[in-house]
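Support request from a user on the community tier.

User writes: "When I paste my structure tokens into the form, the page sometimes reloads and wipes my input. The last time it worked, I copied everything first. Here is what I submitted, just in case something in the input itself triggers the reload:"
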């Protein structure tokens, strides 16, 4: 699978996971409506399905996906929660993406 396609799929997967976790958080921590659980469940089901679209081994896919998830979560922190990531957050995101790149771009025999 080409790297750009894989990365875009990882981004879509991360957004589905963050939304699926954020909506129950709103319900529990911010007195949101219990109806938030319905789109949360749909979003988590979408997240799971998106992970199955990768042709590589599940463990490798999950490991590489983790790096993209971290960066998407930091973007969410800024865009949705209104909290600007710190320099340490950004360094951590770069380290996570570097780990993802090492996993995804490593030569396979």
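"...and here is what came back when it finally went through:"
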């Amino acid at each position: 699978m080409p790297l750009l396609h894989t990365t875009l799929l990882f981004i879509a997967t991360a957004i589905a996971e963050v939304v699926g976790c954020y909506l129950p958080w709103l319900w529990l921590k911010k007195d949101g409506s219990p109806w938030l659980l319905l789109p949360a469940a749909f979003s988590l089901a979408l997240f799971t399905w998106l992970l199955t679209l990768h042709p590589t081994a599940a463990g490798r896919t999950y490991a590489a996906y983790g790096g993209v998830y971290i960066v998407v979560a930091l973007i969410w922190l800024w865009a949705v929660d209104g909290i600007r990531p710190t320099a340490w957050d950004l360094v951590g995101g770069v380290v996570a993406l570097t780990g993802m790149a090492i996993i995804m771009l490593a030569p396979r025999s």
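Agent notes: The reload is a front-end session timeout and is unrelated to the input. Residues 3-105 form one domain. Residues 61 and 100 are 9 Å apart (CA to CA). Escalated to web team.
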